[in-house]
Structure formats: C-alpha cells, structure tokens
Write a structure and sequence with these properties.
300 residues, Tetracycline Repressor, domain 2, globular
Length: 300
C-alpha cells in the first residue's frame, strides 16, 4: 500500500504531466522522427537519421520548449480553464503556480543548452521560439485571427527546425506543411468555438466572441475547403505511396466535419469536431509510415 505522501507525489506527477501535456509532446517527437525519415531526409539511411545526435538535440530542445509553452499558457489561462475545463483544471492546480513557473524557466534554459550542441543559430532559433510562445500566451492569444494564426505557426515550428536542419526544399515538403498548417488552423478556430463560454466571461477577443458563431463557422468552412483542396493536390500530383489512403479518409472526415459544423450549437458538438481534427492530425503522423514501405526496408 502506498503511503499518503507517496500518493500525493504521484498525483502531483500526473498533475504536472497534465499541465505540460506529455502525451502531445510524445506525439510531436514521433512526428519529428517520422517526418525526418520519410519526408525531410529520404535519401539517408534510417539508422543515420535515428542516431543523428544533432537531430536528437533539436527534438529534445523542441520538447522542452513545447512543455514550457504549455506551462506558461496554463498560467495565463488558469481562470478561463476553470470555466471551460473544470476537471482538468482541478488536477492541474495540485501543483502550485510558483512550482510551474520554476519548471518553465528550467525547461526553457535546458532547451537553449541542448540547442547549443547543434549550433549558435539553433540557440537563436529556440530563443525566438520561446519568446514567441510567451508573447502569444501573454498578449496575442486574446486577439481575433492574429492569435489563431500565431498559434498555428507555433504548432508547426518544431517541424520547421528539422526542415532547416536538413534543408530539403522539395515541393512535397511544402505541400505536407501547408496541409498540416491548415488542419491546425481549423483546430484553433474549433477550440475557440468550444471555449466561447470562458472567453466571453474573461473578455478574450477570439473570433467567435468578436464576430459571432456564424462568421466563425463560415471562416472555418473556408479553411476546411482549402484543406480538402490541398489534400487532393497531394493525392494527384505527388508521390506519397500508400499514404493516399490517409488523405482519402481525411477528405471524407473533413466533409463530415463540415456537415456537423453547420448543425452545431453546443459545446459537446464542437468537442466532437475538435476530436475529429485531432484524430486526422494523429492519424496523419503515423500514416507517414505508408509513404514507401519497400524503400524503408532497404534503408535500415
């Protein structure tokens, strides 16, 4: 049997894991490695990518920066989250704000130290990334459209770091990046609709608060159509192997998304839409494996 103090420590661990959203960070790490093997460095052997110390340091720096970003975002959004996510917020509050801020500074410092192993340019890159995340959480998040666009850019930035490292400028890389960026933009707009109650209460100037639900749905529909168009372009004009199965599934889900969107008027409806987008993003990450299985077997 665990003692009371041991149970308290375990609860605090899960609380901190919830704050930094460890499951999201794990998915990003997997995505960075899969994208490196299949998209950014297709000519390199799998072992040379997996055991590249520079890539490892970039992934670790990204993970630390993202974790710190979730902490500072949690710090600024604590009151809003109490309205929108009361259960999760109660778990998050098992760790004091001072402890969270201490972790925030330690993680950011660690990211810069790790990035210094790669180059001074990498340190500058992550310093700017850290500043951008803080600026978004502190000020930009409450601005309509600007907050959504910046959030989407910050989400794909860890992949941009790998892109710069490998310097792969093929069109297929940009096509995948645009598809991901549009999906993330859709998710941000959907989250705003889902969290409109807390945003209204605390005067967050999000798109639904400023322009209303109908305009938000119209904007979301436009981005969804652009995402569908990008998916069709990837299927028709690029060599993506068996990954076309993923894009066909995505297009079908996005059409269903649009149908549900215009019938939605409750938080539970928007939560369903949010989960559809999360499924597409996670499925897309693992479907990278389908790009060319035969080549992968010969690259070990």
């Amino acid at each position: 049997m665990l003692s009371r103090s041991q149970k308290h420590i375990i609860l605090k661990f899960f609380s901190m894991f919830s704050v930094v959203r460890g499951y999201n960070i794990l998915v990003v790490v997997i995505a960075q490695y899969l994208a490196s093997i299949y998209i950014f460095a297709p000519s390199k052997t799998i072992n040379s990518v997996l055991f590249d110390p520079n890539l490892l340091m970039l992934v670790l720096a990204s993970s630390a920066t993202i974790a710190a970003g979730y902490i500072i975002n949690n710090f600024y959004d604590s009151e809003k989250d109490l309205i929108n996510k009361p259960t999760k917020t109660m778990l998050d509050r098992l760790v004091s704000q001072n402890t969270k801020l201490s972790f925030y500074f330690v993680l950011n410092f660690s990211a810069l130290v790790v990035a210094s192993y790669v180059s001074f340019k990498a340190v500058i890159f992550f310093a700017l990334y850290i500043f951008a995340i803080w600026m978004y959480s502190h000020r930009l998040k409450k601005q309509p459209m600007t907050g959504n666009i910046v959030s989407a850019i910050l989400t794909v930035t860890p992949f941009f770091a790998i892109f710069i490292y490998y310097q792969n400028f093929e069109l297929v890389v940009f096509a995948h990046a645009i598809f991901l960026f549009l999906l993330v933009s859709m998710r941000e707009l959907t989250k705003d609709l889902e969290n409109i109650k807390g945003d209204l209460a605390l005067n967050y100037r999000t798109v639904p608060v400023v322009y209303g639900e109908r305009i938000s749905k119209l904007m979301l529909s436009v981005v969804a159509v652009l995402t569908i168009f990008t998916g069709i372009v990837l299927i028709l004009f690029f060599e993506i192997g068996l990954m076309y199965y993923f894009f066909y599934l995505s297009l079908m889900l996005l059409i269903i998304f649009l149908i549900i969107l215009w019938k939605s008027n409750k938080k539970t409806h928007y939560l369903l839409l949010h989960n559809i987008l999360k499924f597409i993003i996670v499925a897309g990450i693992f479907s990278i494996l389908l790009i060319d299985i035969s080549v992968v077997l010969n690259r070990i």
